[in-house]
Amino acid sequence: MTSTLPQTVSPFLEPGPRTKPNSLAVLQLSRDNFVPVYLQQASGEHDGYVEGAVINTRYGSFPHSTLLNVPWGSQVRASKVDTGSRGRKRKWQLDEEAGRATSEPIEDEKETGNGAGEENGDGDEGKQLVTDTSGFIHVLPPTPEIWTTSLPHRTQVVYTPDASYILHRIRARPGSTLIEAGAGSGSFTHASARAVYNGSLVKGKRPGKVFSFEFHEERYHKMKKELSDHALDGIVQLTHRDVYKDGFLVDGKSPEADAVFLDLPAPWEALPLLSRQRPQLREGEAGEAGANPWVSPLHPKKSVFICTFSPCVEQVTRTVSTLRHLGWVDIEMVEIANRKLHTARDRVGLYLPVDRGVNSSAKDIEEAITKLTEIEERFRENARPKQPADGSEPAKVASKAATNGKTSVDEAALKYPWLDGRLVTRGEPEIKTHTSYLVFAVLPMVWTAEDEATALARYPIGNEKFVVSLMGKASMKEERREAMQQKQGNRKSRRKDRDEKLAEAEG
Ligand SMILES: C[S@@+](CC[C@H](N)C(=O)[O-])C[C@H]1O[C@@H](n2cnc3c(N)ncnc32)[C@H](O)[C@@H]1O
């Protein structure tokens, strides 16, 4: 992947309706195969292709020009590209290097795209691209979910089921300020950047921000570049830092975080630096407590929500113990067991009369063969156009197939192959995602005498104009009177009815 011009708003946050030049797009080759790519406007020959920049996949070649300015989600068909020109180009370059420049191969390249076929894009400099006979991909906008599955892994990453749950539990929302350590491969960073983004172009809104920390120098540089390529560097501030030692201030100032996520091998080492008060000096640590005023990285006027992510329970135990010592409350551990369920229609054993919830196979070979023959016949039938001459709706295919002398039990289902068979859901035998233990906790905001005075001024106690209980007494009395009157009224009218009926009977 190559980076180009920066964008103002990240395509992860506001991708717009269509693909754009110099912006990240994700090509979906198959269900779980995604390729991130920066789309480039064709400007002449590129890497030996006269079509400009080209992406080669096992499903064919895709010049960038065919992927540009299309609505997100578009299916794009492969193009015929002049792959031969690459070899010839190299030969030409070699010739040039040897001092024998020749334009011969370039002449040949001009032939590309002149064959018969559907045009699928405005090739550069008048060159027309030709759609290949097969192969297609889908162009998708970049999202944190897709990025997590396609990013270049440098570490274990936090996957979407965990990331979404964590962000929800630590109350990451538009305008939040989140501390994250370590950044690793940036999977969680992308998810958190979107969670805190509040369309910061709107005036008067507190801009959301992620303060991310990474200790490993190479990972830090790679991620710094990725953030800039993805135009997320306005929202994510990445710092190269050992947080165990140097804490979470940025340029000496507090990020004033209201949410924290620690994906570190030893979160308990970092927790003392996420306090509201100066942490006690640790064993072997030099320094004068109180030499400089303590600056907390946490928001002073908000409760702070934390999550730590640890793969083994021993780490959890230490983390929980440290959290308790440091005054965090509501400490809870959660494990996410993500499981995929595969749901499909089982088309075998349909003709067995009543036990459709139980049978999973044909009664005998004859039934299986009859069923298969019928399915094939139905597919052939469906593939044939059946538009009647009068232009009315084509008739649905009704199958009259019988098995072992019996007619099918589900005639209606046979008309629609997709409704055929019973629905079967199978779970994965094993849980495949890498997950960890998630520890959650809350550090309540510090409640000062000033806060108490403000609260009292807003909700005064003792100066009320109405006393709720007195109001209640008066209204309850009124309600009782009304109920009594109604009751008496009912009794009177019942008595009147009875008297009238008696008079009728007697007279
Ligand atoms: C498992 S990875 C984090 C993966 C990340 N959450 C993601 O979703 O891509 C842990 C990272 O923490 C970093 N790390 C370890 N100790 C650190 C420290 N003391 N300060 C800052 N980062 C640290 C490691 O270099 C590593 O990249």
TrEMBL record:
Main EC class the enzyme belongs to: transferase
Keywords for this protein: Methyltransferase, Nucleus, S-adenosyl-L-methionine, Transferase, tRNA processing
Gene3D superfamilies referenced in this protein's UniProt entry, alphabetically: 3.10.330.20, Vaccinia Virus protein VP39
GO CC terms in record: nucleus; tRNA (m1A) methyltransferase complex
Bias (Basic and acidic residues): 475-484, 496-507
Boundaries of every tRNA (adenine(58)-N(1))-methyltransferase catalytic subunit TRM61 C-terminal domain copy: 135-274, 301-442
Listed EC numbers: 2.1.1.220
Region (Disordered): 1-20, 79-129, 378-406, 475-507
GO molecular function: tRNA (adenine(58)-N1)-methyltransferase activity
GO biological process, one term: tRNA methylation
Protein localization: Nucleus
Positions with biased composition (Polar residues): 1-10
Name listed for the protein in its UniProt record: tRNA (adenine(58)-N(1))-methyltransferase catalytic subunit TRM61
Naturally occurring in which organism (per UniProt): Lasiosphaeris hirsuta
